[in-house]
Amino acid sequence: MKLVMAIIKPFKLEEVRQALDGLGVEGLTVSEVKGYGRQKGHTEIYRGAEYEVNFIPKIKIEVVVADEQADKVIEAISSTAKTGQIGDGKIFVSTIEHTVRIRTGETDADAL
């Protein structure tokens, strides 16, 4: 099993969710996060005063999938979240050793 974690622009969330639904992904965790990458934040003007925004609002999506489904999920997120502009985000993939569904006690692939 693989944990696919993606950091994307907030307005792309619904498109990514629909793409993952189309692949049959059943579980998804979404968090509102802040951070920066190469763009290192930006400067904004509010009521005539200029100030720096060091942490950009982003969305973190986490989904655990079977090994054979991971590449399709990565491609779906990548193609759907891409705008071609700086700050599109990143995808991280980790191996999951063991999973347990608390309610039923099912483990690993059955727990997904």
UniProtKB/TrEMBL annotation:
One of its GO terms (cellular component) is cytosol. Keywords: Nitrogen fixation, Nucleotide-binding, Phosphoprotein, Transcription, Transcription regulation. It comes from Rhodomicrobium vannielii (strain ATCC 17100 / DSM 162 / LMG 4299 / NCIMB 10020 / ATH 3.1.1). This is Nitrogen regulatory protein P-II. In nitrogen-limiting conditions, when the ratio of Gln to 2-ketoglutarate decreases, P-II is uridylylated to P-II-UMP. P-II-UMP allows the deadenylation of glutamine synthetase (GS), thus activating the enzyme. Conversely, in nitrogen excess P-II is deuridylated and promotes the adenylation of GS. P-II indirectly controls the transcription of the GS gene (glnA). P-II prevents NR-II-catalyzed conversion of NR-I to NR-I-phosphate, the transcriptional activator of glnA. When P-II is uridylylated to P-II-UMP, these events are reversed. InterPro entries: N-reg_PII, N-reg_PII-like_a/b, N-reg_PII/ATP_PRibTrfase_C, N-reg_PII_CS, N-reg_PII_urydylation_site. The modification O-UMP-tyrosine is found at Y51. It comes from the Bacteria. Homotrimer. Belongs to the P(II) protein family.
